[in-house]
UniProtKB/TrEMBL annotation:
Annotated Zn(2+) binding sites: C255, C322, C323
Domain Hcy-binding: 15-337
Gene3D superfamilies: Homocysteine-binding-like domain
Organism: Sesamum indicum (Oriental sesame)
Required cofactor(s): Zn(2+)
InterPro entries, sorted: BHMT-like, HCY_dom, HCY_dom_sf, Hcy_S-methyltransferase
GO molecular function: S-adenosylmethionine-homocysteine S-methyltransferase activity; zinc ion binding
UniProt GO BP: methionine biosynthetic process; methylation; S-methylmethionine cycle
The protein's name in its UniProt record: Homocysteine S-methyltransferase 2
Gene: LOC105171316
C-alpha cells in the first residue's frame, strides 16, 4: 500500500509550484487565529497574545485550526506569531521550556491536520492498479514568526518604527534561535508575517541563509496605505528582498485592509515572479492604545468575498484572511475560488 505524500519535498524553487499544482492552481490560507481564539472566549490581553493559549488552552488552538481545515484551508498557521523565547523568559519560563512551546505550536497544527485527514478520508480510498491512494486535500503547516514589534506589543508592529538603536544585527539575534527551533519543528514552511519594514525583511533573509534553514519560507508584509508597508518603506523594495532570497517561496501581504490588496498585488508583481499570497484582515482598525478593534471600518464576509475573484485575477495564488476573519470568511473564500473560472 502506497500513500501519496501530501507534498513532495522538492528544492525551494519548485516547492510552492508543486504544492499549488496539487491544490488545483491556488491555495486557501486560514483566517485570523488570535482573534478567533478570542471569539471563543480566550483572554489574550497579554504580551504573549495568542501564544498564551499554548500554555493555558492548547485544545482551543487545535479546535480553531480544525475549524479552518473544515472550512477549506490548505495552509494553517501555527500559534507562534507572538511566541518568543524572550517573551517566555519574561514570564519566568526557562529557555528549554520556551523552545518546547514553540515546537508545541507546530505540533498542535500537525495534530489538527491528522485529525482532519482521519475524519475527511474515511471511506474515500481510491484503487488504481495495485496502489491504494488516499484522496486528501493538500494541507501545509506554516510556522508563524511575528515581527520584533509584535514581541514589544507596543503597537510598533503597525508602525514599523523601532528607533535608531535597533539595527539589522539586533533583529537577527532577536529572531535567530526561534527560527532555528521552528525550522526543526516539523513545520512545512515558515510564515514570516506582518513584516513592518525593510530592515526586518533583510534580517529574515540573512537568517535563512546563515542558519541554512532547511524548510522554505514566505514573506508577508502589512500596509496601511496600499503603496508602502506600515513603516513607509515601499512595498516593491520589500518584495525585492523576498525575491532575492532563494528560500522564499511566496511573497505578499497580510493583516491589511481588503481595499488596499489589489494595488499591492500589482506592485509586488512588478518586482517578482514568485507566487503571491494575500490574507487581509477584516478591514477594521486596531487601536493599539485601547487594545481593541474599531469595528466601523470593517467589511462583512460577503463584501470581503467580492474582492477575492479580483485578487485571483490580479495574480494572487494563495488567499486567506487575517485578524477578525473567521472560518465563515474562509469557507466563503474557498467557495468563491472553486467556482471561479480563474484557476491558474
Ligand atoms: C497581527 S497578524 C496575526 C497573524 C496570526 N497568524 C494570527 O492570525 O493570529
Ligand atoms: Zn492579523
Amino acid at each position: 500500500m502506497v500513500l501519496e505524500t501530501v507534498v513532495d519535498h522538492h528544492p525551494n524553487s519548485s516547492f510552492m509550484a508543486s504544492f499549488l499544482r496539487q491544490c488545483g492552481g491556488y491555495a486557501v490560507i486560514d483566517g485570523g487565529l488570535a482573534t478567533e481564539l478570542e471569539r471563543h472566549g480566550a483572554d489574550l490581553d497579554d504580551p504573549l497574545w495568542s501564544a498564551k493559549c499554548l500554555i493555558n488552552s492548547p485544545h482551543l488552538i487545535r479546535r480553531v485550526h480544525l475549524d479552518y481545515l473544515e472550512a477549506g484551508a490548505n495552509i494553517i498557521i501555527s500559534a507562534s506569531y507572538q511566541a518568543t523565547l524572550q517573551g517566555f523568559e519574561a514570564k519566568g519560563l526557562s529557555r528549554k521550556e520556551g523552545e518546547a512551546l514553540l515546537v508545541k505550536s507546530v505540533k498542535i497544527a500537525c495534530e489538527a491536520r491528522d485529525i482532519y485527514y482521519d475524519r475527511a478520508t474515511k471511506g474515500s480510498w481510491d484503487i488504481s492498479g495495485d496502489v491504494l491512494t488516499r484522496q486528501q486535500r493538500p494541507v501545509l503547516v506554516a510556522a508563524s514568526v511575528g515581527s520584533y514589534g509584535a514581541y514589544l506589543a507596543d503597537g510598533s508592529e503597525y508602525s514599523g518604527v523601532y528607533g535608531d538603536n535597533i539595527g539589522l544585527d539586533t533583529l537577527k539575534d532577536f529572531h535567530r534561535r526561534r527560527v532555528q527551533v521552528l525550522a526543526e519543528s516539523g513545520a512545512d514552511l515558515i510564515g514570516f508575517e506582518t513584516i513592518p519594514n525593510k530592515l526586518e525583511a533583510k534580517a529574515y533573509a540573512e537568517l535563512l541563509e546563515e542558519e541554512a534553514v532547511n524548510i522554505p519560507a514566505w514573506f508577508s508584509f502589512s500596509s496601511k496605505d496600499g503603496i508602502n508597508v506600515v513603516s513607509g518603506d515601499p512595498i516593491q523594495d520589500c518584495a525585492l528582498i523576498a525575491d532575492s532570497c532563494e528560500k522564499v517561496v511566496a511573497v505578499g501581504v497580510n493583516c491589511t485592509p481588503p481595499r488596499f490588496i489589489h494595488g499591492l498585488i500589482q506592485s509586488i508583481q512588478t518586482v517578482t515572479a514568485k507566487p503571491i499570497l494575500v490574507y487581509p484582515n477584516s478591514g477594521e482598525t486596531y487601536d493599539a492604545s485601547r487594545k481593541e478593534w474599531v469595528p466601523s471600518t470593517g467589511v462583512k464576509d460577503v463584501d470581503f468575498v467580492s474582492y477575492v475573484g479580483k485578487w485571483r485575477e490580479a495574480g494572487a495564488s494563495l488567499i486567506g484572511g487575517c485578524c477578525r476573519t473567521t472560518p465563515n470568511t474562509i469557507r466563503a473564500i474557498s467557495k468563491t475560488l472553486s467556482s471561479s473560472a480563474v484557476r491558474t
